[in-house]
Amino acid sequence: MTTDQQTPDELSEFADLMRREEEFPGRGYGVDPRVRRARRRRGWIITAVVFALLLGGSGTYIGWALTAPLAAPDAVVSSTPVGAAPASATLAFPSQGAAAISVSGGDAYLGPTASGIWATSGTDEARAMASLTKLITAMVILDAKPLADANDPGPTITFDKADHDLYDEYYVMGATIARMPTGSTMSLRDALATMLIPSASNYAEAVSTWAFGSQGAFLDAARRWLSAHGLTGTTIVEPTGISSRNTSTPADLLTIGKLAIAHPAIASIAATPSLSLPGPGGMSNTNTLLGVNGITGLKTGNLGEDSYNLLYSATLDVGATEPLTVVGVALGGATRDSVNRDVIRTLDSIRAGFQHVPLVSEGREVGSFSTPWGSTARIVVADDASIFTWSDTPITATMTTTTPKTYEDGEIVGSITWTAGPNTTTVPLEVDGTIIPPTEWWRLTHPSELGD
Question: What are the TM regions of this chain, as residue ranges (predicted)?
């Protein structure tokens, strides 16, 4: 049989294909099976040759495509998150009379004038000091008869009949007094404590006379002391404050308060709630705010209705690195209770003005990375952030980013720094997600996305 002859099986297959061609014309069923097989063989051969050419030798397309460098992922960075604007603080001052306040240790927050006269209400006219005078009397006495430290008792004073008679004189005038038996003795420190803590007027005159020899000499010394400290708005005509001609301005009284807290003995005495001594007996401090809201001193004074005064000191822990030292004065209050309430409100309003301002929450997206092959990752804030500041101090923010090395989840890629007054807060930025390399197929089919 020659090669042109067909076997019965081939003839049967051909007849079957012809029938299909009649049913489905144009689909190539009528082509001789040997021709179809030959065509398939030629296609396989061509495909094999193409792949052989592609795979053959170094520097082929496949080798290049699979190893060519990729462009860095595209980065998009949004605007820097600043956080909500802090609320403005409002100082609460008395609605009547006059007040002034000074804050030391807070200049970085409150401004360079805070430790001088930071804020005031009412006018700075001179008003009756009442028993605030006794602070001046004590400091003038200690200028002449200094104590070595806060606990030094100093020299001993012996009270005579003239001193004893002062008890009755001031009792008639309605002043505060303490017992002073004839012939009794007391240390200078204890005598000053009796003058300042219960505000005993008879002790103020007796001790100032003892220190200078006469009231005239004391008043001369007091006027020199006032002049030396630049207290031109203050007038003293007697040592107790019972005279309405003993006057001072809010500004001068702030200076007097600072001088008092800087004097170890006076600061210690003014901070004492109560004491008991032979002679005068048990005594309570007229400043009932001691220990309340951080108040540490200093002196009360009043001459009756609408003439209640308080010169006070306080240590305020507001959350800053160091507590603040406050010296304040309230003059011309309606009652002692109303003055106390006003001072508490003032201190509370200072505390409330210091705040931790929220800036950003962990996970906040600030940017992203994307690639041509569809892999993406986010740039997010790695932690919560807040900043401590006063009132509505402006907050600025700076964001820096770096090019990642791995583009893997958790890699640090920059930071944000916020600044408000003296404080800064910095949090890192990190990659959220991982940039996955492209597949080999993507590399082979996207030559234009590959580098040289």
Answer: 44-64
- The residue type at 144: A
Share of the chain above pLDDT 70, in %: 87
**Which tens digit of pLDDT belongs to each residue from 378-413?**
999 999 999 999 999 999 999 999 999 999 999 999
Separation between Cα atoms, residue 254 and residue 98, nearest integer Å: 12
For 209, the enclosing helix (H) or strand (E) is: helix 201-212
Report whether pLDDT(1) > 80.
no
DSSP sequence for 306-357: T-EEEEEEEEE--SSSS-EEEEEEEEEESSHHHHHHHHHHHHHHHHHHEEEE
- φ/ψ of 253, rounded to 5, equals -65, -30
Q: For residue 171, what are its two tokens?
A: 């009792």
Q: Which domains does the chain have, with CATH numbers?
A: 8-56 (no CATH), 74-84+358-449 (2.60.410), 98-333 (3.40.710.10)
Round the CA-based radius of gyration of the chain to a whole number and report it.
Answer: 46
2-11, 129-138, 347-356: segment of lowest average pLDDT: 2-11
Instruction: Check whether the bond before 298 is cis (ω within 30° of 0).
Output: yes
The SS3 assignment for 304 reads: coil
| Separation of alpha carbons 315 and 312, rounded Å | 10
pLDDT of residue 26: 54
**CA-to-CA dists, residue 174 to 68, 302, 332, 402, 426, angstroms:** 102, 12, 19, 78, 63
DSSP summary character for residue 57: S
pLDDT digits (tens, 9 = 90+) for 78-134: 888 887 778 899 999 988 899 999 999 999 999 999 999 999 999 999 999 999 999
155-212 tens-digit pLDDT: 999 999 999 999 999 999 999 999 999 999 999 999 999 999 999 999 999 999 999 9
